[in-house]
Amino acid sequence: MDADRIRAHLDPIRHEFADPRSLVMPALKFAQTEKGHLTREDMAAVAEATGYSPSFIESVASFYDRLYTRPVGNRVVSVCVTLSCMLRGADEVWDALCEHEGVDHHHGGTSADGRITIQEAQCLGYCDKGACIQVDAEETKGPYTPEEAVKLVEELREAPTPAELWR
Amino acid sequence: MAEYAPVDLTVENQVEFELDGRRVAAPAGTMLADACYAHGVEIPIFCYEPRIGPPIGACRMCLVEVEGMRGLQTACSTPVAPDMVVRTTTDAVKEAQDGVLEVLLANHPLDCPVCDKGGECPLQDRTFKFGPGTSRYVEPKRHQPKPLNLSHRIALDRERCISCFRCVRFSQEVAQDGELTMQERGARSEITTFSGDPYRGRFSGNIIDVCPVGALTSIPYRFVSRPWDVQNTPSVCGLCPVGCNTELTVREGRTKRVTGRPEPNPAVEEGWLCDTGRWAYDASWSQARITAAVVREATGDRTATLEDAVDGAAALLRGRTAGILVGTAATVEEAGIAADLAGGALPGAVVARMGIPGGALAPLRALPGAQLGDVDDADLVVVAGGDPSAQQPVAELRLRKARRFGATVTGCGPRPHALEALGTFIRTAPGDLAAGVASLAEAIAAATRPVVMWDEADLAGEPAAAEALAAAIAANPAARQLELGAEVNGSGLRALGLPDAGAVLDAVRAGTVDALLLVHADPLDAPGRAAWDAALEGFAGPVIAIASHADATTERADLVLPALTMWEQEGTLVSMNGRVQRLRPGARGPEGAAAGWELLVALAHRLGVVPGYRTAAAAFRAVTAGRPAFAGITPEAAGVLGVPLAAPAQVAGASAPPPASGEGVPLVATRTVYGGAAARRSAALADTAAPAELRMAPDTAAAHWVNDGDRVVLRSSSGESGRLTVRVGDGLPEGVVFAPLGAPGSPTEGVLPADMAPVLVRVARVEAG
Amino acid sequence: MPILNSVYRHREAGRPLTELAAYREAGGYKALESVLGETDADDLQYAFVRSGLRGRGGAGFPMGRKASFLPKDSRLPKYVVCNADESEPGTFKDREIMEMNPFQLLEGLTLAGYAIGAVRGYIYIRGEYEHQARVLDAAVRAAREAGFLGKDLLRSGFDYDITVYRGAGAYICGEETALLESLEGKRGQPRLKPPFPAVAGLYGSPTLINNVETLTALPPIVTRGADWYAALGPEKSPGTKLFSISGHVVRPGNYEIVLGDTTLRELIFEHAGGLREGRRVKAVWVGGSSVPVIGEEHLDTPLDYESLQGIGTALGSGGCIVMDDSGCIVRACLRLASFYRHESCGKCSPCREGTSWFERILQRMVDGDGRMEDFELLESLFRRVSGKTLCPLADGAIAPIRSAIKLFRDDFIRVCQEGSPRPEPMLPASVG
Hints:
The complex is a heterotrimer of chains A (167), B (769) and C (432). Chain A contains seven helices and four strands; from the N terminus they run ααααβααβββα. Chain A is α+β, with helices and mostly antiparallel strands and 167 residues long.
């Protein structure tokens, strides 16, 4: 994404912060909506638009789970694996999804067709709906059985990819 | 040890507290870690590095017990308080130290035997002193691919990193180059540049010095020696006039490494070096190094022994009237002995110094001076002219520090530079620095403790500006001036009373001298080159050069006496703000070479006049005797940290240059220390060499019918330049062109006069881009 | 399920209060209207002190006292920051408040801003709560249009606005100084204290930081009076508290109780519908995952700060995770250890290295490769790390494991020798 588009996105909220550094995170989130992850060029554009060094921008981006400095699939499926969800079958959901998408059971990963990334999430705050799953940054849903989870990714694979990838 | 902040235990009104049962005191605000160290108690630290900035409390190594405070406290961030009771050796403290070292070592490789840091490694030392002794870690260690190159000069071994954040804080806060950051999080954290690009910075090497483990090492020093196989010698850098204090690591007669001093000089470099000062030492064995005397005869060149060559030089000079030209990097001893020759061995000789005449600078130099360390206390720092980052690199770090501590930074000058972002800078038209100075006068008058940095070359070229600036500083009794000098030992040569090179040049032209002796002087590679070139063309007498490296002038000399470099010889340099500091010999230098001062003493002997000194120290005493600037200064007094001159180093008999005349576009030239001459001789710095480029704004390029990439030459009333490549850039002012001094082939030097007076140049395209 | 006061107003109303009109109908913004231009800021602060309200984020620091720490004479602007980075495992109460009753949070945040003379309030919400952030965005817009935010609120001369700021996935940002770092656009790594945020917080300015639930309690405290609130529950730490209950219970969800009048047993068996047929309580992390675990023997403990502290655990965030006797305690500990290892920010060495080490030892145990000396090793590591880190994350990692080893030593010894096969989870179908 180019720096001008990022600047235009930031302009309306600039006045809300005493220090423009606070714009870095909104800028990164917005820059990520284009490809679903942040390329070197995206981070350089964020650096240009906010006035901080590209290295600093990358250091911020790489700190947060939901900013991706490496490519991910068209849709990112986050499976909560923390204690409450584990007690409600999260591991079974995880295994089923990894199996179905043909990705590593330890680390998750992106399906061969590039459509779906399966990743572990730490507590998503939907413990009452465990085992829960969040697709991109959409509202987390649950509870899922392994079968329902597989159905979910199959539907995602067929569905059109959103124009803006908020993650 | 550099890692703790120096504590002045002599000031009044100290805070008394109890340390391990002893009643001690330290100034209010002193952090416990520093106060304890000052009282002989070492609190182990890793992340703390007071030179970098405020404590961050990350490594947790410095935990101590403070009575009345819950849990252990980090000594790096707890200031002393009245009647505080501190315990540093209790079981709880020991347990914490064991714990931190145990976890730090859990994933740290046990490769000390092959690690460059081994033997001088804080982690190793503190593990022996404070550690648990055994490891209970049985899990597989974290593995990373072996070292990667952070740049051509720095290797990063990520497995060894203990995430102390010193290097990234140096990059972000001290150098502010924005290059190095911590990425990822938790146990996966690692230091890196943007996308793993090479670390581009003028001060990158300091991260090696601050690294408390072997994670960051110098590539030219990799696997070169072990700490117990080397001698470390405190010395001074002789590559620019800042005079940074250095430590030379010497093995088998060679300089293997240059680092910041473990006991830094707070008045000068504070332990930080620029990359040029750190890595240029390999120039002492570069291709251009003169390792044996050269005698140039009709039948060709032949090498000679030093004995024969000095005899030969004496024979060439005997009975002649010599012009003696002293280069700007020559030591006080070399220049002083050269001047002494005129009084005895070479009667009637005309002795002069290279460098800027500076006739207009007397009123500025007469004002109260500041050392770089004084910049820390300033509330206003003014930079008049110049480009400190390029010309006096470490001064940049002081400016950044002052800004960080809340000082206002402002300035004026004709060229865009890296420090302009620190404050409000006024861009002046070439030749009109006075206008910029006028607009700063009010701020200088209003400040409480202003320090005004001024560029020797820029102000020397504009007498009106120099006068106005002197008046503005004089108007505020609290204001101090700090000269951003152009030449390594310019102050030292002036303090000896040497006139400017014009004296020798005029004598050569007039034929009143019939021999030339050059002492570390290369007038064909400096501003004023054209005039020297012409004068030497018609000069029939013998030319004798004392030099360490081959250059344009040694090529034309009849006899070359090989001299030692600043890494190899004893001597004294006076920094730009008049600090007298000593070079100490580290490496031996080539077999066939000798120190310049020794060569000059030998020459005097051969010419039948035996000088009254046989050591460098005695020479220093003899040649500075009667010079008011050196009053009371002895080599002993200069000690390890140097002393300021007793009086300003004023110039003798120079006149101010006239304003630019003729036609063409104004040229603004900038000396480059980083990427300048040193980079041409040092293999380690080869990639930093500043390109021979002529930079200008788009409309200016259009007005001169040149495009980006064209090769051009410049012509002025002083001469013609070598070839430069046009670079058209936005953000440059229109109606002016910019070129570097010290670029490969020294193209720019040819178009400038020796007095660095402003010039107008015509741009002629010789090759389309 | 008893609705005890209007902290949880949307359940009383029987619908989400995401429309301003609905919130107004349910009595919303009465508190702000009654205060602006009527009550002195210091008096309002004093009312917060008198109410006895303690921070509901986990640490339980008295809210009014925290507000009183802000310097009165500072020339710097002041800020209120709402900590909506709800990420403590087992905790989802703030989520429901924000998605169902966003205006009450805005009103509370505005009251807090008025009490300390702040110029702006920020809601730092975890990145995963994008849905809730959008609900809040809409609520902020509606409140601004209605004059409850912006310039000269309700013509009182008080200017105040609210910014919803999204995090991007990092548990550590729930620690208040890490949150500030993140809100300032940096890596969310905790700061060295002092200075405390009350003195030098956001952008170096005096800053009050409170949890969503804490701020949401302010409007009823104002409308019904500090004395009314102080009279609810135990004298020392009164009021109501939301408990999020999850894990092996039939009706997981948020339940609001008056502190001290409900036991853990009642929460599990009456509110949350109990366990599956034939199961017994094995372990409960009553205040989120960072508190010491307790067993069945403590089920009759009343849920309040002091009583829970009395049995060696803590009320924490009120995120109550229940595991029945089908679960494996060592696996549970490993899962939590992985969580803390993943979330350790990496700034301070004991936490960065320690959390990784804990996880590796527990992994070995689950794999059946545990050694008897691992117990001593773990206990020694806990001693060496605990209390020596920059922030409480490592202590949060240690508490549940250390307590579990004490309480369930036999299980640990058995797993060390035999390993732990994955137990059957409680699937949706298995709930009646």
